[in-house]
Amino acid sequence: MKIELTHQSGYHATITDNRGYTIDIDNKSVDNPQGASPMELLLMGLAGCSSIDIVHILDKQKIKPDSLKIEVHGNRQVDVTPALFTDIHAMVKVTGDVKPDRIYRAAKLSFEKYCSVSKTLEATAKITFSVTVNDVTYEQ
Description:
31% of the residues lie in helices and 36% in strands. It is of the alpha+beta class.
């Protein structure tokens, strides 16, 4: 795995992976930021990693939800450098003709066992999740 960062201006930079995919990053505190902050990218990585796990687990069971969304909220330490995440909550939202217990199990396996990003972040942050299937929420 390899990435390359190219500084643009101010705090704005472009990061490209070895396959040519590009992401812009910036300092979210500046006027008119040109990309996500590095800490936002961590939360995006958690959502992305978990979504891949969940889809993979559901595919094995031949479960095809109509939609899958993951919303992640993270709280960081205050007035400390570095300001690490202390707690992160992911809300997995699924619609379709699916069994809630299957979705919940897939999410649990992802966050607690398979997701490399989750396993990395859990060293400093408590990670929790909830699952909403067709507007009914199931908590951890």
